[in-house]
Amino acid sequence: MGKKQNYLTPQRQELIRWFEDRAPSFVDGYVGAIRLLHMPTFPGRVHFACHVVRDIYRHLPKALGIESLPRPAEIFPKMVKKLKKLWDDNPPNSKLSEDEVNSDYPVSPEVYLYLEKIIRKSSEIEMQSTVGKHLVIALFRSSDRREDEFIHPWIIKAFDAEYKFFVARAHLSISVDKIPDNEDLVKHFEAFERAFHSLVGPYFSGKEELDDILQDTNPRTD
Fold it and tell me: Taking the complete model, does pTM exceed 0.85, yes or no?
């Protein structure tokens, strides 16, 4: 290959193959981000590359058949809107006077029950997996590993740390002085790739073994 293809290391070629087999809609984005790493003067390079990685974190698990994590911004605005409607449809039984500010405030059963629902949903979201852990679990299950195989905590910690780096730089900034610079972009991108490859690596060794077996067992044709 020519010089323009030198960035496609053996590890990256394997990851491209993995995306082609398991999540083909992500191939262009991943390859585009790789190219941007080697175009330091490309406008918006940091934002574009970081947004690709952010989308891999957020959407790849669903592409692999793992249910998406509920996001507060997707849930609570709708719940608060419904709470307001319940409040308007079922107003309090009485209004507080100035000397009753610190007393219990009577609300309708409908409002009370829905408040409880919001609180339970908030607790569920607090207890759910982090975005990094969610991706780790999805990759783990998709790489032909046993369901009971142990996931090392350092892998989850590494995925979470890289997610924070990329998501903080994925969106346009409100002022010039807040535009992220190129420092550490390549280092963090390659760290993400190494962690990603460490989880899907067994897929390649298993596939190569299967290919060898099929090649040995299939009859040769002239």
Answer: no
> For residues 89 and 111, is the Cβ–Cβ distance under 8 A?
no
Question: Any idea where the domains of the chain sit in the sequence?
Answer: 3-69+130-217, 72-127
Q: What is the pLDDT of residue 73?
A: 75
DSSP element (H, E) containing 141: helix 131-142
Distances (CA, A) of 58 to 26, 64, 78, 184, 210: 12, 12, 21, 22, 31
Is the Cβ–Cβ distance between 187 and 1 less than 8 Å? no
Triad 32, 132, 66: Cα angle to 5°:
85
- pLDDT of res. 97: 60
Helical packing angle, 27-37 and 10-22, nearest 10°: 160
Question: Could you report the per-residue pLDDT of 111-148, keeping only the tens digit for each?
Answer: 888 888 888 888 877 777 788 989 998 888 776 655 55
Out of 96-100, 135-139, 155-159, 174-178, which region has the weakest mean confidence (pLDDT)?
A: 96-100
Give the pLDDT score at 164.
93
Sign of CA dihedral 72, 73, 76, 78: negative
Ramachandran region, residue 145 (left: φ > 0; alpha: ψ -120 to 50; beta: rest):
beta
Q: How many CB atoms lie within 10 A of CB 21?
A: 11
- Count the neighbouring beta carbons within 10 Å of the beta carbon of residue 187: 10
